C-alpha cells in the first residue's frame, strides 16, 4: 500500500477519530488539564514525526490561542541520533504525538523528559504502544 493511499485513508478517518476521542477520552484530557494547572505548566514542547507533525502544528496553535502558552516543536533527532537532548525547564509539559506510538525518536524525547522529571503526555492511536 502506497503512502498516498495511507494518507488518503487517514484523512477520511479523521471525523470518526475526533468523535471517538471526544466521547471516550474526556477523562484523561480533564486529568491532564488539572495536572497542568496544579504543576503550573507555563510552556509545552511537542515531539512529532511525519504526518503527526501536522497535528503538532495544530496543537501548537490551539494551546497558544486557548491557553496563551508558548508551544515549541522539538527536534527528535537531537535525542535519539545525536544524544544531545536540550534541558527542559521545570514548568514544561512534553507532549509526544504519534499515530502508531512506535517512533523511536518520539519515545526517546518522552523518556528524556521523564528522566529530567518533567511532565509528559502522549497522543497516539495505540494504548499498548511503546510511547503510550
Describe the protein.
This protein has five helices and four strands. Helices cover 51% and strands 17% of the residues. The chain has helices at residues 3-24, 26-38, 52-67, 77-80, 104-115; strands at residues 43-48, 71-73, 92-98, 119-124. The two termini are 26 Å apart. The chain is an alpha/beta fold and 132 residues long. A four-stranded parallel sheet has the order 2-1-3-4, with helices on both faces.
Helix content: 40-55%
Span between N and C termini? 26 Å
On the 0 to 100 scale, the average pLDDT is: 87
Number of helices: 5
Give me the secondary-structure category.
Answer: alpha/beta
Number of strands: 4
| Biggest sheet: strand arrangement | 2-1-3-4
Largest sheet: 4 strands, parallel
Shape: globular
* Low-confidence runs of at least 5 consecutive residues: none
Q: Strand fraction band? A: 15-25%
The rounded Rg comes to 15 Å
Question: Secondary-structure map with pairings?
Answer:
Elements: H1 3-24, H2 26-38, E1 43-48, H3 52-67, E2 71-73, H4 77-80, E3 92-98, H5 104-115, E4 119-124
Short description:
With 132 residues, the protein is α/β, with parallel strands linked by helices. The chain has 5 helices and 4 strands.
List keywords for this structure.
single chain; four-stranded parallel sheet; alpha/beta; 132 residues; globular; 4 strands
Amino acid at each position: 500500500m502506497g503512502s498516498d493511499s495511507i494518507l488518503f485513508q487517514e484523512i477520511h478517518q479523521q471525523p470518526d477519530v475526533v468523535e471517538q476521542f471526544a466521547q471516550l477520552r474526556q477523562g484523561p484530557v480533564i486529568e491532564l488539564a488539572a495536572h497542568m494547572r496544579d504543576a503550573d505548566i507555563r510552556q509545552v514542547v511537542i515531539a512529532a514525526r511525519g504526518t503527526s507533525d501536522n497535528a503538532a502544528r495544530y496543537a501548537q496553535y490551539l494551546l497558544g490561542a486557548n491557553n496563551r502558552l508558548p508551544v515549541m516543536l522539538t527536534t527528535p533527532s537531537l535525542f535519539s541520533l545525536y544524544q544531545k537532548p536540550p534541558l527542559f525547564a521545570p514548568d514544561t509539559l512534553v507532549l509526544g504525538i504519534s499515530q502508531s506510538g512506535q517512533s523511536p525518536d518520539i519515545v526517546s524525547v518522552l523518556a528524556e523528559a521523564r528522566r529530567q522529571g518533567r511532565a509528559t503526555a502522549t497522543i497516539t492511536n495505540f494504548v499498548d504502544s511503546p510511547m503510550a
